[in-house]
Design a protein that fits this description.
With 67 residues, the chain is mainly α. The chain is built from five helices and no strands. The chain starts with a helix and ends with a helix.
Length: 67
């Protein structure tokens, strides 16, 4: 999913992102502001995982949302 689509649909995606990554708070969502890279960084930070793993999780999530 390209960054423009991700950003444009952020308000629709927030609920699904919250289900997938429950440790992310409303304040975190405000900081992310639909920026995919910020989402990856927050997942990495909140879950203590490597950037590659966070990117993989976001990509898998995006693929599920696209179907």
């Amino acid at each position: 999913m390209n960054s423009n689509i991700f950003s444009g649909k952020w308000n629709q995606f927030k609920g699904e992102v919250q289900k997938q990554w429950g440790k992310l708070t409303d304040d975190t969502f405000d900081q992310i502001e639909g920026d995919r890279e910020k989402l990856i960084g927050q997942i990495q930070e909140n879950y203590g995982i490597a950037r590659d793993e966070a990117e993989k999780q976001v990509k898998e999530w995006e693929d599920r949302m696209a179907t």
